Amino acid sequence: MTDLKPAVRPHLPFHEQESEEANTGAPVILLHGFGGDRNTWTNIQTGLARRKRSLAFDMPGHGEAIDWPVAGNAAVAAEAVTQSLDALELDRVHLAGHSMGGAVAALIALRAPERVASLTLLAPGGFGPEINHRLLRRYAVATETREMEVLLEQFFGWEFKLPKFLAKTAAESRNRPGAAATLETIAGDIIDGTVQKTLPRQEIAELPMPVKVLWGTQDRVLPTRQAHKLPGVVATHIFERVGHMVHLEIPRETIRLILQNTAAQ
Q: Where are the residues of the annotated region Disordered (predicted)?
C-alpha cells in the first residue's frame, strides 16, 4: 500500500478585496508582521478598495498557513509569497509590508524588481541590527489573554487604546496546535542572538520603483532611528505618537500613502 502525502498548496491563504473602479492596474499585495495574520489589513483593504484591488496573505507559520511546509525568516517567506504570486498569475504587483512583512516585501523587490511596481514599508524589519528580541520571543509563545494584553501594549504608541478583543484573539491563535512552537522557531530564525539580520539599504534605494517607508516615533520593537539617514530617494514618513503598528494606529494616513505610492503605476 502506497502512503499518500498531503498535496502542497499552490499558494498561501489570502483575502482579496476587489476595487470599486475598473482597470485599476497592478493589485496591492499586503504582508503582515511577525505573529500577525492577514486580518490585520482589514481596514486598509477597505480603504484601498476605492481605487485598488488588494490581496492580504497569511505568511508561512501564521494564520491559516500555520501548516505551510516550510516556515522561517523573511527569506523563506519571500519564497512562499513569490510562489503564490506565480500560482495566481500575478506578474506585476505593488507590495506593502509591515515589520517582518516589510523585510519580505523588500527581498522580493530586490530579487525580482521587474515585477514590483511600488514598495511601501511600514516599520520594516532588517533596516538595522537593533530589535526588541525579548519582547518578540515572549510574544511568540504567550498563550494567556492577560499576558498577551501586556505584551501587545508594547507594540502600540503609549496613547493608543488597545481593543479588548485583540489580546483574546491573539491568545486563542497561539493555543492552536503547533502555533506557539512554530512562531518560536521563526523568531529564532529572524533574531541572531540579540540582533536581527539586516537588509542592503543602499540596494533598496537603487530599486527602479518608488519606495516609501513609514515609521512611528514611539516604536518599541524596531527603533525609529533605523529610518534616519536613509538615501534621499527613499520617501520617509515619520509619525509622532505612533508605535510599531502603523497601519492599525493611523489607517487613514497609511491608506493615503499606499495609494500615493501606487498612483503613477
A: 1-23
Q: For residue 101, count other CB atoms closer than 10 A to its CB.
A: 32
* 8-12, 53-57, 196-200, 236-240: the lowest-pLDDT one: 8-12
- The CATH number of 14-129+196-262 is which of 3.90.1150.10, 3.40.50.300, 3.40.50.1820, 2.60.40.10? 3.40.50.1820
Beta strands in the chain (DSSP E): 14-17, 28-31, 54-57, 93-98, 116-122, 191-192, 195-196, 211-216, 235-239
Residue 35 one-letter amino acid: G
pLDDT per position as a tens digit, 166-198? 999 999 999 999 999 999 999 999 999 999 999
164-174 and 179-190 helices cross at what angle (nearest 10)? Answer: 100
Distance CA 220, CA 193 (A): 18
pTM: 0.96
All three cell numbers of 204: 533598496
